User: Fold this.
Amino acid sequence: MIIRTCGLLVILASVALASCSKKDEAQERREAASRVAEQVPGGPATLPTMDSDPGDSGMSPAANTSAGAMPSEGGPAQMAVMAEEFDVSSVMPTTASLPPFPFFKDPEGLENNLKGTDTLKSFDRHGFIAGGRFVTQEGREALFQYNLENPDSGRHYSEIEFLRNYENAISSLGGQMISRVQFTPEVVAAAGGREQIEKYWAASSPPVPEAEHQTYLLRTADKEYWIHVSTGGIVPPMGFVTVLEKQGMKSSLGFLDAAAMKKELDAKGRVALYINFDTDKATLRPDAQPIVAEVNKLLTADPALKLSIEGHTDNTGGADHNRELATARARSVLGALVGLGVDPSRLGSKGFGPDKPLADNSTDEGRAKNRRVELVKIN
Assistant:
């Protein structure tokens, strides 16, 4: 009887120890994940170096855990939305000598399906995931689209081989992977839905869970290069690459002089101006100064003239944000005129955002026409 009791006690003790051990292991994993997450400034966990095992996923288990990754079978990790805005300064500028834009030749045995103006654009907008959310960047852009199984060359790339080639190449230039967050329903919803994403998208369809999306940032002392690489979700398998040099648009349009502004105001009571600001900011770019100078001439020539300066945007992004941006931009123009000596009592400012479009927002040309500042005569 005593022996049986002792045996039972030993068994119970073993079960208890095993349970404690499992809890300790789970706790250790959570603590390790927390330690990694603390090292990452508003973005994914620290990335592996180029000598990482070619057979692994490209991120350590701890890194996946820290970024909120949920394991999936046969597809990329689906990561939770991170609310923090991505800090560009967290990526150190490269000291490498960069090849000519857009940096990369076609992978061996593959040929870009896009040609001419479809692959190289002097100025466009494209979407990326950074800080766990969808953002857009503007600038010079290059697009690449590949069939990973090329029957002509006989060269077949697995998706991981295609992705790893670009990871290694970008790393060698001093770039850094800043996101492996995928298009979960939360990410898509936060961006305003699939339709909003696909306005500025040239890759695997965002809602497809089997697709893999990787975002990289390559910085120099004065430039940012945003790179998106994706595969999957399409049969036959495809690979997509976007390289965007962030920069403001160089206007190819002339601007109205003071006499032309007066003529338009006399005839219609308003005149639309196309003034360049820094991307998603209210900061006037240097090439906006000649237009502001002409408005100053207009006001100087007619001391009785009073103007409302009204800001407008296209419908890309959140409407409330665009109204705030349009208001801030109108105030910037007003402030620039006051800085030139215009009496502020002769000026007012408003921001309407996307609420008063001049053209169809479904085309690039229409959106460009809608992004404007209007001068409206105050009677």
The longest strand covers residues 133-147.
